[in-house]
Specification:
The complex is a heterotrimer of chains A (130), B (117) and C (98). Helix content of chain B is 31%, strand content 19%. Chain B is α/β, with parallel strands linked by helices. Chain C is α/β, with parallel strands linked by helices and 98 residues long. The chains are: A alpha/beta (130), B alpha/beta (117), C alpha/beta (98). Chains in contact: A-B, A-C, B-C.
Chain lengths: 130, 117, 98
Amino acid sequence: MKFAIALFSPPSAPSSRRALRFAEAALHGGHEIVRLFFYADGVHSASGNIVSPQDETDVARQWREFVTSNGLDGVVCIAAALRRGVLDEQEARRYERQAANLPAPWVLSGLGQLHEAAQLADRLICFGGD
Amino acid sequence: MSHSLLIISRQAPWAGPGAREALDIALAGGAFDLPVGMLFLDDGVLQLALGQAPQAVQQKDLTANLQALPMFGVESLYACAHSLALRGLHETALEVERLDGDGLRALIDRYDQVITL
Amino acid sequence: MKTLHVLSSSPFSDDRLSSCLRLLGSGDGLLLCGDATYATQPGNSHAEALAALQGVSLYALDEDVQARGLKPAAAIEQIDYPRFVALACAFAKVNTWL
């Protein structure tokens, strides 16, 4: 099956880690992930600025590694990201902000990418809240 | 054929960006000519209340954007009758079809995909 | 094929579970994750409400049950992530109560 996975929560939420475990299981099960789309507070799960204590799970880093090592399409909603202060280099320059905190492999784009993924996939699954 | 998407909006209008972000998904879907419906459930029905004055809390007028839904091609608008009654809402700022339990179940069954936020 | 509903918040802190119970139809599934697994502990009102459901398949994410030291009724299937993925395929759609 083709999955579109949407995440609505930050890396401190159990649902962010749960989404990652689901995504890993989907690939191990031979399924395809059409796109990961991070929306609402989910944009924080793509932040490159999280500093996790050494003895805690670094979910943001694990998401980055998961997307990179599997060559997945990881999209962060630009409107949700801007209002929450998650900016890539281009947006940081555009809005003259102090820091860019959205690293590769994440790409900023619009809600059209969520809709496209939902249309391409067999299943849309969302994670968020607790 | 396109997958149809039901957006279930459960948050009160001024509880943070949730209500706006649910609406944005619906508007974007409509803008792309996709079959999108919207259901207001639980505190989401509070978005439909009359006489709101968002400027009092320095917020944008959500009602105006909700009223844009049909213009974006999103005409399938529903509200949970129980949620409305519980909150004492008899009139709504938007024309919505009120559904009871059986109606809600049938509604969800009709759609290919659901996002509840 | 029906809908798999997914809950992850404590039923003692918000109304997601009670709203979900009003919307569940025959043939639907309900997966409890995270703090929603507290609903499965025998003896509380939510566990009783779950036990009274007809025609709904009940699931709980095993890692969350274990983390919380819960003992769900046998009628609630404890699942791992591969089974979660399989359920997402088996049901026509997934409705996560964010």
